[in-house]
Each structure stands twice: as structure tokens, then as C-alpha cells.
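Late entry, written up from scratch paper. The run itself happened at the end of the previous shift, but nothing got recorded in the book at the time, so transcribing now.
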Amino acid sequence: MLKVLVLLQIAALSKYDDLRASRRSERGSVTMEHVLWAVAVIGIVGIVVLAVTNYVTSQAGKIK
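Output as recorded:
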């Protein structure tokens, strides 16, 4: 029984070390975050420009 418990503990600790090592290598995550924010801002600006353009076009059509 002791051998099984030791094997389980070793397996758990090795998985824990693997997870810690993988979390350390988060290279590029800040760049990815900046890219996603830039895409979101460009999308929002595009929606606002489209709304303003449609409003101006509809108001210009009413001028006679």
C-alpha cells in the first residue's frame, strides 16, 4: 500500500511541475492581448462610422 501511495504522490508532483513549467512559458500572451484589443477597437470604430454614415446619408436625402 505504501508503494502505491508513493507512486501517486510522485505522479501528482510531476504533473504539478509540468503545469508550473508550462505556465512559465507564456511568451506572446501580452502581444496577443494587444492584438485582440486592437481588433475590438477597430470593429467598434467601424460600427460607429457605419452608423454615422447611414444617418448623414438619410438626413441628406431629406433635404430638398
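The chain has a mean pLDDT of 83.
(Scratch paper discarded after transcription.)
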